[in-house]
Description:
single chain, alpha+beta, Glutaredoxin, 4-stranded mixed beta sheet, two-stranded antiparallel ribbon, 6 strands, 21% strand
Amino acid sequence: MLIETLLFIYDGVSAAGRVHVDDTSELNVNGCALCRITHDGDEERDEWASCSAAIGIPIRYLHLDEMAPDVAAMATGRAPCILADAGGRLHFLVDRATIERCEHGVHDLRGRIAFQAERAGLDLPSAV
């Protein structure tokens, strides 16, 4: 089954959400392993931008306060994580522990996405 969209769930609240909570919320953002791989502060890392373009499918980036109910049902308490939307169904793809083990950042994450997709019987449109 072809993956149509990847959903990256960050373990922190969005910038808009931070307006409504105290400054300690930024500790989660800075401590999010997925955020450290894809972003440098508020800016997307160039290396990640190239990688995400090569994956060849849309990637939605969501924070804890931005999840739809179906996404929240699968990701709450498990962020950071990566979900796949394939065939109109959400599939849990990459867990927190796996993301935290991505010692070489973007390259490790890209390989783990491909491995977990194949393991779940899901296909990416390009060779990740």
